[in-house]
Amino acid sequence: MQMLMPEPQIFVERTLALIKPDVVDKEEEIEDLILRSGFLIVQKRKLQLSPEQCSNFYADQYGKMFFPNLTAYMSSGPLVAMVLARHCAVSYWKELLGPSNSIRARRTHPYSLRAIYGTDGLRNALHGSLSISSAEREIRFMFPEVILEPIPAGQRARDYLNLCVKPTLLAGLTALCKEKPADPMTWLADWLIEHNPNKPRLHHQITEEEHQ
């Protein structure tokens, strides 16, 4: 009986990551761990939120006993906001963070980022979006100038590849096979740059004044 394999699809998610005020001095070290874990840092900025802005960001936590301490902590100094992208970014980032309480994280997930950099249940070093929808909201909050367009998946992704990518790539691979260069990857990269159908074409008309 022939097994039907699902067609490959493109899924790229984005999530928000925050390096909280008490560990901003570990920024480079944490970013290195993020990159080595397969994430791409799409956007990054350092900022300091007011207590009011923190209240708006954590509006879903309003009314809980820890809310005043949370807003005071998050507005106590500068933080680093990053948009991370990769396959299943939301779930992978949550897994890398570990439990929200750093004391518990050290018991159950000793290699997680919150276990390594966090202090307790409040000062847990890092933030991650809980879901794709909350990631979109939080990214818009921290990066209001960014336009988040839905990333194509399924049939839309296949249509995009068939229309915009495969024709040029097929022509490039055909030329590569004919040329047989010593460094095929570099040759193909240069060929694709040169034959990019979307590359701007600059036409400069020589005027009579330029002749004279």
From TrEMBL:
Main subcellular localisation: cytoplasm
Coiled coil: none
Localization, UniProt: Cytoplasm, Cytoskeleton, Flagellum axoneme
Domain of life: Eukaryota
Nucleoside diphosphate kinase-like domain location: 12-150
A GO cellular component entry from the record: cilium
Pfam family membership, one: Dpy-30
UniProtKB keywords: Cell projection, Cilium, Cytoplasm, Cytoskeleton, Developmental protein, Differentiation, Flagellum, Hydrolase, Spermatogenesis
Signal peptide coordinates: none
One Gene Ontology term of the molecular function aspect: nucleoside diphosphate kinase activity
InterPro entries: Dpy-30_motif, NDK-like_dom, NDK-like_dom_sf, NDK_H5, Nucleoside_diP_kinase
GO biological process: cilium movement; CTP biosynthetic process; GTP biosynthetic process; negative regulation of oxidative stress-induced intrinsic apoptotic signaling pathway; spermatid development; UTP biosynthetic process
SUPFAM superfamilies: Nucleoside diphosphate kinase, NDK
Subunit-structure text: Component of the axonemal radial spoke complex 1 (RS1), at least composed of spoke head proteins RSPH1, RSPH3, RSPH9 and the cilia-specific component RSPH4A or sperm-specific component RSPH6A, spoke stalk proteins RSPH14, DNAJB13, DYDC1, ROPN1L and NME5, and the anchor protein IQUB. Interacts with IQUB.
Family, similarity comment: Belongs to the NDK family.
Record protein name field: Nucleoside diphosphate kinase homolog 5
